[in-house]
Write a structure and sequence with these properties.
The complex is a heterodimer of chains A (about 325) and B (about 170). By secondary structure, chain A is of the alpha+beta class. Chain A contains 9 helices and 18 strands. The longest helix of chain A is centred in the first third of the chain and has 19 residues. By secondary structure, chain B is an all-alpha fold. Chain B has 2 domains: about 80 residues, Rna Polymerase Sigma Factor, Chain: A (Orthogonal Bundle), CATH 1.10.1740; about 70 residues, Winged helix-like DNA-binding domain superfamily/Winged helix DNA-binding domain (Arc Repressor Mutant, subunit A), CATH 1.10.10. In chain B, about 75% of the residues lie in helices and about 0% in strands. The termini of chain B are far apart. The chains are: A alpha+beta (about 325), B mainly alpha (about 170).
Chain lengths: ~325, ~170
């Protein structure tokens, strides 16, 4: 069914009314009478229902528009080694217990780290050498800047580093047994699900991993290039990427360019505190192309699931079940 | 205005009524509003000679006002839940692959937004992206709710035109 054909079936006056209703329904403080008037309007004919569905869908899609503001970060200056509150460890009840079981590795990571962000948070920090770091959601790093060293360990998540050139040691980010070094420029490193992705935005980055000393285990990235390696493995050869897509998170967005559904949902899942559980594999494999705002990740997950005819149930703070 | 005995009772009981109301609604700003309402209502009572126990009457009035507040809140929540379903339920009639907006379309929408008058764009984004109600936007910007509606409606119309021209 072509779009033009569908639209020609909707009278212009009805389409205008539908948009009026969208704006009224999203105003807040709608009265009961107005709501009933809307239902009566919508029920007049299938054309009215269709016109509303079309405008509603458009309104939903507008969630990806650029609000013209710089990204929500810096949200907060990360605190250095906050003590673990007793409250966060003393959890009771079956649900809380299962959540704790899932969260346990996170707690351990968090205790080792110097900087952390929670779900949906981003934060910037200036490192002791003057380099800056932008941490994405659910990320943890530990730093070692003693005796002229410039070592950053990415324990989990994703961060972009703007490196201040220095005469001494190169700036080095280690993750899952590999290391990404630069002396100047900016690059991003992410460590998700046992795989590390390194993306150079400006300047060159050398990425090493696997057996020490072997020449094949070093890859040099030019700006706009990316490499990946598995835990303890050697980096793959560099490939060109679209930086706007890869680093969209810096502006609080997630961009999917023909991404499989499950992978897209998993990516959005990084921005929510709940664990994602699929109780079905019935979704089709058609790839997703879309832009979402990370701060609206719950709505984005819901919208994505609906495209596959799946339903979403959420126990806030615990789990999101997609079935 | 001469204070009636009823209002005198209310005034002398005010700290207690306020504490009770705050306990009922769990919010001191709301409690303040409810007490204000109660005061207005009590001041409209004409024949307070007919009331035996002024203190009890004043207390009862505050309690009723708190209950009324809850009913209103509950109705509000019900309406909001229905509206939420209307706006966010999946759209069966439209095929799934079209529910996501491509990057080209998004860029065009962004560009069109940039071309809108600054105030219209700002109001639209406050509502659509930050979820601020028309009433609150009106309060913040210092214009009427009707004007807020007009600004948003104008942006929606422009973007819908753009969508239709690109389809």
């Amino acid at each position: 069914m072509g779009k033009g054909q569908e639209r020609s079936e909707i009278d212009r006056g009805v389409a205008l009314d539908a948009r009026d209703w969208i704006v009224r329904l999203t105003a807040g403080n709608l009265s009961r009478q107005e709501l009933e008037r809307f239902r009566a309007w919508q029920a007049q004919s299938p054309e009215h229902a269709r016109a509303f569905a079309r405008e509603k869908q458009f309104w939903q899609l507008l969630q990806g528009v650029n609000d013209g503001n710089p990204p929500a970060a810096p949200v907060a200056v990360p605190t250095l080694r906050r003590p673990v509150s007793r409250r966060s460890l003393l959890v009771g009840g079956a649900l809380a217990a299962s959540a704790a079981a899932v969260a346990a590795p996170r707690v351990i990571t968090w205790m080792r780290s110097d900087f952390t962000t929670g779900s949906g948070e981003q934060a910037t920090a200036t490192l002791p050498d003057g380099s800056t770091m932008l941490l994405n959601t659910n990320s943890s790093v530990a730093i070692d800047f003693r005796a002229g060293r410039r070592l950053v360990s990415l324990l989990a998540g994703e961060a972009e580093f703007a490196v201040k050139p220095a005469a001494g040691a190169p700036f080095s980010v280690s993750a899952l047994g590999g290391s990404s070094d630069a002396n100047g420029g900016a690059y991003a490193v992410r460590s998700i699900a046992g795989e590390v992705t390194v993306t150079a935005s400006t300047g060159t980055v050398s990425v090493t991993g696997g057996e020490a000393g072997a020449a094949a285990n070093m890859v040099s990235l030019a700006p706009g290039q990316q490499t990946r390696y598995l835990s303890g493995g050697a980096p793959r050869s560099a490939s060109d990427v679209d930086l706007d897509t890869e680093l969209a998170w810096r502006a609080g967005r997630v961009v999917f360019d023909a991404r499989p559904f499950s992978s897209a949902v998993a990516e959005l899942g990084r921005y929510v505190s709940e664990r994602l559980v699929f109780t079905t594999h019935a979704h089709d494999a058609s790839p997703i192309t879309a832009v979402f705002l990370t701060r609206d990740a719950h709505a984005a997950i819901e919208a994505l699931a609906h495209t596959q005819g799946l339903s979403v149930r959420r126990v806030p703070g615990v789990v999101i079940v997609i079935s | 205005m001469e204070l009636t005995r009823l209002l005198q009772s209310f005034a002398s009981l005010r700290p207690r009524i306020e504490a009770l109301t705050r306990g009922r609604v769990g919010c001191s700003a709301t409690a303040e509003d409810i007490l204000q309402d109660t005061w207005v209502r009590l001041s409209n009572v004409r024949h307070d000679d007919a009331i035996d126990n002024h203190a009890a009457f004043a207390m009862r009035a505050a309690k009723n006002a708190a209950i009324g507040h809850f009913r209103k809140q509950q109705r509000r929540n019900e309406i909001d839940a229905e509206v939420n379903d209307l706006l966010w339920q999946s759209v069966d009639e439209i095929s799934p692959e079209r529910i996501v907006m491509g990057r080209d379309m998004l860029r065009a929408v962004d560009a069109a937004l940039q071309d809108m008058p600054e105030r219209s764009r700002r109001i639209f984004l406050m509502n659509r992206i930050n979820g601020v109600s028309h009433r609150e936007i009106a309060r913040q910007i210092g214009i009427s709710e009707e004007a807020v509606y007009y600004h948003i409606r104008r942006v929606v119309e422009r973007l819908a035109e753009l969508r239709d021209s690109q389809a």
